[in-house]
Amino acid sequence: MPTTQAEAQPQNALSREATFDFFRRWGFLQASLDPLGQFFPPEPFPAEAPEGDDADEARRYYCGSIGAEFMHIASPEKRAWIQEQLESDYTAENPARILTGLIRADIFEQVIQQRYLGTKRFSLEGLTVLIPFLDQVFSTAAENGVERGLFAMAHRGRLNVMVNTVGRGSNEIFTRFEDVDPRSTMGGGDVKYHMGATGTLITPSGKSVLLHLASNPSHLEAVNPAILGRTRAYQERIGKDGKNKVLPIVIHGDAAFAGQGITAETLNLASLHGYNVGGTIQVITNNLLGFTANPEESNSSRFSSDLAKRLPIPIFHVNAEDPEAVAHTAAIAANYRYKFGSDVVVDLIGYRRHGHSEVDDPTVTQPRRYAIIKDHPALYKIYAEKIGVDPAAEVTAVQSEFFDDQKLATQAEHKISLRTLPDYWKPYYGGRLKADDNPRTGLDAAEVAALTTALTTAPAGFHVHPKVEKLLAQRVEMGNGKKPLDYGMAELLAYASLLKLGIPVRLSGQDSQRGTFNQRHSVLIDIESEVRYSPLTNIAPQQGRWQVYNSLLSEAACLGFEYGFSRDYPEALVLWEAQFGDFANGAQIIIDQFIAAGEAKWGLLSGVVMLLPHGYEGQGPEHSSARMERYLQLAAQDNIQIAQPSTAAQYFHLLRRQALRKWRKPLIVFTPKSMLRHPDAMSPVADLNRDNFLNVLPDNEVTDPRRILVCTGKIGHNLRVERAKRKLTDVAIVFLEQLYPWPKDELQAAIDAHPAAEEIIWVQEEPANMGAYSYVRPLLDRLAGDRPVLKVTRTASASPATGSAKAHELEEKTLIDLALGHGS
Known about the structure:
Radius of gyration: 31 Å
Structural class: alpha/beta
Largest sheet: 8 strands, mixed
Helix content: 25-40%
Shape: elongated
Oligomer: single chain
Strand order of the largest sheet: 1-7-8-6-5-2-4-3
Low-confidence stretches: 1-8
Number of helices: 29
Strand content: 5-15%
């Protein structure tokens, strides 16, 4: 009997749709992704795979040089779009342009290897396909309306990208190998593969894309949130169409993507309202090695990209030895970003031809792999043979170009800047503060009253919470001079006054809308509908943009984002707030490498403000100290400002000064907790009309003290209250409001006002090995003359504070007794 059609099919045959669904879901496991053929073998499917003609066709799409993971995306529309892109045949539009990119990438590295043998360069060889990949991304993006690309990457291939993507002259790179004019960077500057660069890419259709490669340190992935913050700033400058016109790209190493926590934090920013940039193209330059570690030693899953699978974004793995598959993936990634406003991950799986930094011998740790790499031809040769082109003439021309540029570099007298700052930086400056950059920060009573009305008025029919309504009524009294101002009201008045001038203000942090200590209430919430309303958005016509965001539970990524935003919005007041000051420890790399050192290393300025709640109230180690000592240790060469304003008015003037000056330096502010509402820290409205922030608050209440106490913040108020209670007249209390830059003249004047004082005592809440003591002691010695400088502190400790509220009270009482003189 003849067999039926059903009997002729294999037993595991499925319908066409079911067959394709299987390979859409699992095909990436058996995709041909191993660039060297031995070190990244396919994995078995989790179930028996379908067979037959439909399966063969599906394998061609999903088990070739591209392995796609997208079936975890909940949106049917997105999945269908990706299926359509992958289930169609692709032909490269411009093979010659791809070949040129590969030739230039490889020859650039070879010239450096010949001329600067043994010098670190972090070669791109083994992943030179990154150059045509980026070319295709920006070309496709340009057709979608992009005008500017901002991207960040670690060391590997960075110099190559500067020349062959950003468009900097190779002679500019070679001068850095020559290290001409070393005196120009004494004590500063950075190695060549950390520097940023700007340039222009011309697409095949003739469109121009302005490119900026961001400067970044050796702390892999730390730059990720900074480039997103910068992107957001550019997009907001443009306005409504900003997300289409500015494209961010982040280029990762495979081990770094899998290993660094800030990667997950930054990916999570992507779709949150306060941080969305319309999608980022995340590229993993995957050489299947992390320094000397194999993939199984550096990530716990098959792909280093698996971290991204928790998000509804597509992941494309592509064999970096197939340039046309890479170009196809680049086009899909760029179009997906523009169609859906979403992140997309591209995992370029290649290899590393040399050791980690060209001075390492990789045959020690991966002998088999490097025996194969040694004989593996350059990708441009493989691709030229595939498309039937003899590349010899072009290779010779490119070699001559780079050798000529290298010869020019040997004759150069100085390094050429690799970037040009945008025009909006022209009004601003770094270095030392100019004497005439001292704008008046005061406001008269009438202006304060007008701002108060705007700050305390909700829309008609808006149902304000009864507790908040009572607070607004108190703020009306504060703003009209009937009650002294607390920190919360002073802060909002500072923001409102700047917004009225057209200055944008952006504040983010965990619970920053209300404030950790229930002190801000910058956003009102209708208790019936939960509709939100911020009075700061309705201060005046044509006002500056007000933004306040409750951030995700992140320190490093959020602070990095705000630093980046401040880099490209210098006229804005940009603030990040820690929930408690000690929580900023989680962002230490951002603080050390960008905020404290960005100007010294890269000549890049920022006016970002860090608000760090600080004060010992018996709440335990993590809720006491903002680690003042760390910021003071980082302070040098006028790189940052460090302040602890001790009154509401001082806080008001400090914030306004930061925005109104043209001097752009990060500002570290130790803000209060219990002192937010303390009567001794409140200020009369008249103090807002003072000319400026005072770096030192002298003591004018005593006339002939025997000792001068110098302190910052909360402890000073506690001392003042106790001094009054004990009716002491022989102790002066001087508040040091700005710690850095050191206010030498103002503090000297405050001390000299009491010439009969026999001793100067530094008083702090923190243990002796923390706080400002180590920093201020030698500086006070120089001001004290013949008088001894003593200290009153907690005993040196491994932990910032006790966890016992009662122990805290005993310690604080002892501090105050010692400072004022026990039994006085």
